[in-house]
Please model this.
Amino acid sequence: MSSDENQLKRYELFPTPVWASQLENFSVHNQAMLEYIIQLYKNDPGLKRSNVLGWHSPDQLHNEPAFTPLQKQIEEFIENVIAQDLQLDLKTEKYRIKTMWCILNSQFAHNHLHRHPDSLFSGVYYLQTSPNSGNLNFHDPRADVRMLRPRFAKDTSFSNFIVPFEPLPGRLLLFPSWLPHNVDPNLGEQKRISISFDIKGYPIT
Model:
């Protein structure tokens, strides 16, 4: 009898990936972006999106020279993800940043549950954070999984409806744009400053 017979195999269907990287040696670029954002914050009323009490900048920051190094790093990151995990057709489309904006959350500011339409990937880079400045929470997108919740003996990837990520300075996260997420209130006194972005495929002509 083959050792493979009567063996129970598990198949991972419909994966929901989140990719993370820590950008080292980025302090000079961070300072340039921070100075630009603070000046913009003083002069621009911002936009109303998912932000509650917080400030949402205009969404074309990737066109500003101060953000060029981050833009290049993100697009290199997405190319690695495409090559290693997704196997997308790079002969017909190129994947580039469509929008980039800053979220500045002062004390008690947060972002309600939302998604990012008309994009393939979204992400965030943490420029300035402190302890208790507000986790990024990803929510299980499968609505029907909540029909009946069993009791789990211990915490596993099967038991979580919400998965938090701590906003560590220099951390870069990438995730599918359809994945619901929110940001907890900033319970610290320092401003929580992050840079968000959306990525879309554009036809190669």
